[in-house]
Amino acid sequence: MSTQKLSQHQNTTLASQTWHADSKTWSLTTTPPIPELHDTEIDYIYYATDINSDITTLPYLRTMHSKYRIETLAGLPVLTQDLMWKEQVPLFVTGKLAGLRLGPSAGNLEGARVGAERVVWGIQDVLGRMRKSRCDRCELDGNDVGGERKSVEEEGDVEDEAVYRYCTGLGSRFASLEV
Question: What are the residue boundaries of the structural domains of the chain, listed by start?
Answer without folding.
Answer: 1-49, 53-168
